[in-house]
Design a protein that fits this description.
It is built from three helices and four strands. By secondary structure, it is of the alpha+beta class. A hairpin with a 4-residue loop joins β3 and β4. Residues 5-12 have low confidence and may be disordered. The structure holds zinc ion (ZN). Zinc ion binds at residues 64, 66, 68-69, 75, 77.
């Protein structure tokens, strides 16, 4: 099991069962890896074939692929850090997600299932 960094402040501790994978890019300052979600989706799917994209979370904006919104309902997640945990639960429960692939250089997380 992974042991995520302890969260500041307790509360509803809905522990995620997603396997957390971090893909770190170490580059010289003048070279930056792509931060485009479509690109990183491709990277994640290539690295962990045959898993497929089921969602993403943008740490800059809280933007995410929301199945509730897609279905014409209100997004129950929000856009802050706690919202990401709530979204991870949706990924697991509604979308059968298994992998959480984090790209720290882009502050983007791609979920595969
Ligand atoms: Zn949402």
């Amino acid at each position: 099991m992974t042991s995520p960094a302890p969260k500041s402040g307790s509360g509803t501790n809905h522990r995620s069962l997603l396997a957390r994978i971090e893909v770190k890019l170490e580059t010289p300052r003048e070279y930056r890896g792509s931060e485009i979600i479509g690109d990183l989706r491709g990277v994640a799917e290539t690295l962990f074939y045959p898993f497929k994209f089921v969602g993403f979370w943008d740490g800059h904006t809280g933007n995410h692929l929301c199945p509730m919104k897609e279905a014409g309902k209100d997004c129950p997640h929000g856009e802050d850090a706690a919202a990401k945990s709530a979204y991870a639960v949706t990924i697991e429960d509604e979308l059968a997600g298994e992998l959480e692939v984090v790209f720290p250089h882009a502050d983007l997380t791609v979920y595969l299932g």
